[in-house]
């Protein structure tokens, strides 16, 4: 690849196309409002929210998507472990309604997972979400009931991404702290 072209592509994002960056404290109000718009008041009762109440998110993996400098999407990651294997719970993922269908959501999901797994500390990215959205990105269905959440989840929506192609079917246990033994 021509490295100059690659460098220019990073320095000058294409107008109207989403790019991602790490969130800062200045994004807090945007993210809070976005999550309220995307998930409504019921978001606090979601099982994935209960996981995030117990275990802190990794703010270095909180990403913002923006289009032409305007924040338009957000994703969080929570380091967790399941059955002694370390990994991450992805979510919430949301794109502002004014900026949907431009690729921001998939870019955020891909990018945050690539950054997390590249650290070499965790083996998987777990989430509760729609198969139609996430499976084309590499997430796979898990064995129903194997992964225990602190509340009810639809087993068809418990999806896992890993370089270990057996893990989606074999990972088993309750969600625990990242450094649980
Ligand atoms: C889901 C969401 C993050 C997608 O954001 P986005 O930036 O529009 O996503 P992308 O542009 O990368 O992808 C858009 C495509 O995914 C499709 N899509 C969106 N949500 C989908 C879903 N739940 N299931 C299947 N496909 C879906 C869109 O129809 C669109 O298809 P197209 O490319 O054929 O037009 C956004 O709609 C959102 O914030 N929704 C509310 C919160 C939510 O449901 N979050 C996900 C929790 S699992």
TrEMBL record:
Pfam families for this protein: Acetyltransf_1
Domain N-acetyltransferase: 18-166
InterPro entries: Acyl_CoA_acyltransferase, GNAT_dom
GO terms, molecular function: acyltransferase activity, transferring groups other than amino-acyl groups
CDD domains in the cross-refs: NAT_SF
This protein's name: N-acetyltransferase domain-containing protein
Species: Devosia equisanguinis
